[in-house]
Amino acid sequence: MSARTYADFTTQATFEIKKCDVFKLDEGPATQVVLTRDEGLQYYRTMQTMRRMELKADQLYKQKIIRGFCHLYDGQEACAVGIEASINLSDHLITAYRAHGYTYTRGGTVKEIMAELTGRRGGIAKGKGGSMHMYCKHFYGGNGIVGAQGQIFETYNMAALWKLPVIFICENNRYGMGTSVERAAASTDYFKRGEFIPGLRVDGMDVLCVREATRFAADHCRSGKGPILMELQTYRYHGHSMSDPGVSYRTREEIQEVRSKSDPISMLKDRMLSNNMASVEELKEIDVEVRKEIEDAAQFATTDPEPPLEELCNHIFCDMPSLEVRGTNPWAKLKSVS
Question: Which among 10, 53, 233, 313 has the fewest CB atoms less than 10 Å away?
């Protein structure tokens, strides 16, 4: 930044974004949107942090420092960042088990997330939740039971009957575990699955598309029109989980093509550079800062102590007197403290 001052940069620019497909709506989100320099830098830093955090998690898992289930979010960063850009932290958010990115955008720190992945006392769930069970205020993260999400159709019905202000979001990353959507679904128009609920199909690789669609959906809900469904067309670079190499049901060439043509971070970076909203050097500085934050968090996550056994059953209930919990046999008793 020494060679150029902030006055040299464009403070905001207007972009044309991809039009959303709509269902049971007379109009859709705007296709001409404004991005400020500050917003762009914030989105870039957040997506890079999420990307680097997931790549570090991959590394720690392969070193057997992270154990158990671990589902990575790299490739889908524009979904979480775009959604958060158009809702409030006081809004309630529930997600499935690919939850590390949302834990970060909801207010969790990289240190807390990494320490949770390694099962340490300083983790965001005190080391007892792991990859699939992370929580922040107004964030009910990591529903790890796939079947539980099958109740969605009953939920659609109730939300429509009661005109609830709910945005239902399908992050369609093109594969359900190892099965492509084309092989699994007779109709891949997931944004129409609400049937009696309006829907949007959105380019989930473009943070600006997701931001504008979410803004439209939030306005719809807050104005008393009831629920709305968004399908974000996105892509995960890793396999379903760390136990899935991700290349037995798709080719490496397919993954590389998405990386080269549709990567959400590269797309935002190119927009900012081509419109004089940032310099290459400035973005590199952010990359360096992000890498250091991730390395510091990984160091903490591998040196912080594990939670002691006597804390195993704590926090089962909220604001209740301490109680005894049965252990692995009827004679083993553990204490639970709220």
Answer: 10
